[in-house]
Amino acid sequence: MNQDRRQFYRIEKRVALEFRILENDDDFASHPPSAFKVSPYFMLQTQLREIDAEANKLLKVLTKTAPSVAACLKLMNTKIDIISQTLAANNRMGEDVKTELVNLSEGGLSFTNSSAIAKDSLMLVKLIFPDACLGLLLHANVQRCEAIEEGFDIGISFLRMPETCRTQLARLIIESQTHEIKTHQHVD
Known about the structure:
The chain is α+β, with helices and mostly antiparallel strands and 188 residues long. The chain has helices at 3-6, 25-30, 40-65, 67-91, 163-187; strands at 11-21, 100-104, 108-113, 122-129, 134-148, 151-159.
């Protein structure tokens, strides 16, 4: 991976990972990440995150002009968040989630795979973070494929990531790092 990618914070995280290799560059444009079968709860969380990003921009403006209205809308937003998280948590985003340990950053991830994947291959990736009730559908490019004892260590970089996904991923990484630091402080 290039030096820019190494500047992202990295964490080890358990995620449900599903991917599809695209046969050629033309498939990349014609296959949105939504080509995966996903539950209605997964789509609900995705759509609410997109709406939330737009609402937050408007709330910043409204806070200056009508603080009472902005405060009320923030409470409604919190209420909707609680309902959607409860739905997703109770239904595990509609899936029996089998997780694996990956090395994750805002720019990409690495994971172990049983078979090799050619460098520069384009892929569609579905990630589910069960503990955060968060799911992402992304495009990616294979940066490396190295033989290891357990199979192959695959490194991918995310492509065309919407800003809402990048923000959610950054927040998840920071929260995971904070949790890990607190856990280590309590153990010491």
